[in-house]
Amino acid sequence: MKKLSLVIPMYYEEEVAEDCYKRVSKVVEGLKENYEYEIIFINDGSQDRTLEILEKIAKEDKNVKVISFSRNFGHQAAVTAGLKFVTGDAIIIMDADLQDPPELIPDMLTKWEEGFEVIYGKRKSREGESAFKLFTAKAFYATINKLSDIEIPKNTGDFRLVDRKVVDVINTLPEHNKFLRGLFSWVGFKQYAYEYERKERLAGKTKYPFKKMMKLASDGIMSFSTKPLKLVGGLGIFSVIVSILILIYSILSFALKWNNLIPGWTSIMCVTTFLGGVILISLYMIGEYIARIYDEVRHRPEYIIDKTINIK
Ligand code: UDP
Ligand code: MG
Fold first, then answer.
1. pTM tops 0.85, yes or no
2. Is residue 163 within 8 Å of 189, Cβ to Cβ?
3. 2-212+301-309 CATH fold
4. Residues bordering ligand 2, an ion, CB closer than 5 Å
5. 99 lines ligand 1 (CB under 6 A)
6. 46, 208, 219: residue to mutate for ligand 1 pocket, most atoms within 8 A of CB
7. What is the DSSP letter of 102?
8. For residue 253, is pLDDT > 80?
């Protein structure tokens, strides 16, 4: 019998954990005639009752497995850890807050049985998300698709069903700071865009504050493009041209006695601040890449597991 694995990360999700388990398990129980299943919850260092609730669930239901991190390592690391432990033939990644309805799983499975290997959820609509979130998401996908060499589908999140084969490939990728939805697109295979309506969060607040969103965006852009580095060169050339123009202007003004550039203070200030800005931007960009290289060569693990339940 074929087996399904569900990977569900949780960070401060005490308000939804129980409901999430109930709704998800109802769906997979309904498929029991044809598929075995396991549900892997990853507690990403939540300090609330999330782990306690998961432990209780796992005690009563042996299909539930729990991985608990020693601290918060982030959503992408949590999913990455889950993928390492899956034993199923088809793997489903979803959020804990039920914004991605688990009732769609049977339908996605049909697509998998038809031979598609990555069935990714594409949001037709997004309920209950702020105008700011929608705007930043849009800006992000526009930027990344302009900068990177591969196409990352718009309006997709990490909600998807993937074949074992694809997960095996993802598991061999050694890179840190993974941007999973980019990688799933990058690896290729037979992909299918599954359109659905994204619901409102069941309860609680988003666990993606602006800072985490920026981190994800920068992981996405930096790991799929080196164009920002080249941009640095462009900025440099541009600033040099501007300073030459200013120089010509000052010489002309001197030669033709326009008498309008008295102490030259303004121009000096303009040039120095402008160059200063360009240099700082450049350093920041180069620094970002170096930080990544440093991260990779240190070989620190992407996450630390504190304990596991129902996993041998
Ligand atoms: N999450 C996590 N670690 C984090 C942040 C989020 O494991 O550091 C989980 C969170 O519990 C949820 C999923 O990632 O299951 C998506 O987060 P959320 O729903 O808050 O993001 P949004 O839907 O608002 O983008
Ligand atoms: Mg959510």
1. no
2. yes
3. Spore Coat Polysaccharide Biosynthesis Protein SpsA; Chain A (3.90.550)
4. 95, 97, 99
5. yes
6. 208
7. G
8. no
